[in-house]
Amino acid sequence: MKLEEYAERVVNRLPCSKWEKQDVKDELMDHLRSMKSELVEEGYGEQQAVSLTIQRFGPTGAISRELSESMPLIDKYFRKWFMTLFFLYVAISSYLLLLSPDRFRRRAFTVEWKQRMIEYGVPQYTHLFQNTKPFQSLVDYVFHYDHYSFGTVMYNLIGNILIFLPLGLFLPLLFLSFQNMHRVFFLTLSASLIIEALQLLLALGSFDVDDLLLNVIGGLIGYGMFRLGAAMIHRRRKSIRFDDDLSATPS
């Protein structure tokens, strides 16, 4: 067996893109050639050095299995596309939560309302767009749903969950340091708190502590989806059969 054929058998069934397989094969060939050169320098013939190199590296199936288990969930060639989707998600979310025309229409109304309340001598009503009592908004939407349109309820309940769901999914998928529920929780909470604070300070919306709760729930659901998907991928990889081949007869 030639070194090229040996390396091809190792990478043939790896669970990754063809480009990643080629990278793994090139790296493996560098190691194989290096060991073969050392054996030739020790006095072995060309064919004998090839055979010994293959024997010392071991069965192709065993190496393939080790490489498969150590590979990331997505290889670097697909990772760049997921990274692009992540930045696109951040841009769209920022637009919807802070920069959309609807936000600036709300800002005009909020600023006018606050000015009126100050002029009328009731400044306490300038805080009408703030809710710092946990579950107050949620209870209101659930038990007094007839006071709101269906779209308003869905936007404020389901929308606040869905807008942060991709964050909990993308973070652990793209960054190893975020494959931890606590880190995803704190980052989701921090991001939601920053957005709520900006909406309040810039009069682009209301500050609602229940929005923080729903945003965090969305992030944790996304993280749960990541864990479920990762478990399925690992299970599939373990089910792949890598046949051992110790043939060392040079061709």
Secondary structure topology:
Layout: H1 3-11, H2 18-41, H3 46-57, H4 60-70, H5 76-99, H6 101-119, E1 130-131, H7 136-143, H8 150-162, H9 165-174, H10 181-201, E2 207-208, H11 209-239
* Through-space gap between termini: 5 Å
The largest sheet is: 2 strands, parallel
Q: Which ranges are low-confidence, i.e. pLDDT below 50, for 5 or more consecutive residues? A: none
Structural class: mainly alpha
In the residues, how many domains can be counted?
2
Q: Into which percentage range does the β-strand content fall?
A: under 5%
Order of helices and strands: HHHHHHEHHHHEH
Question: Which sequence of strands runs across the widest sheet?
Answer: 1-2
Helical percentage = over 70%
In words, what does this structure look like?
With 251 residues, this protein is mainly alpha-helical. The chain has two domains: 3-71, no CATH class; 86-236, no CATH class. Helix content is 73%, strand content 2%. It contains eleven helices and two strands; from the N terminus they run H-H-H-H-H-H-E-H-H-H-H-E-H. It has helices spanning 3-11, 18-41, 46-57, 60-70, 76-99, 101-119, 136-143, 150-162, 165-174, 181-201, 209-239; strands at residues 130-131, 207-208. It has a two-stranded parallel ribbon. It is elongated and about 100 Å long. The N and C termini lie close together (5 Å). The mean pLDDT is 85. Keywords: Membrane, Transmembrane, Transmembrane helix. It holds the Pfam family VanZ. Residues 87-228 form the VanZ-like domain.
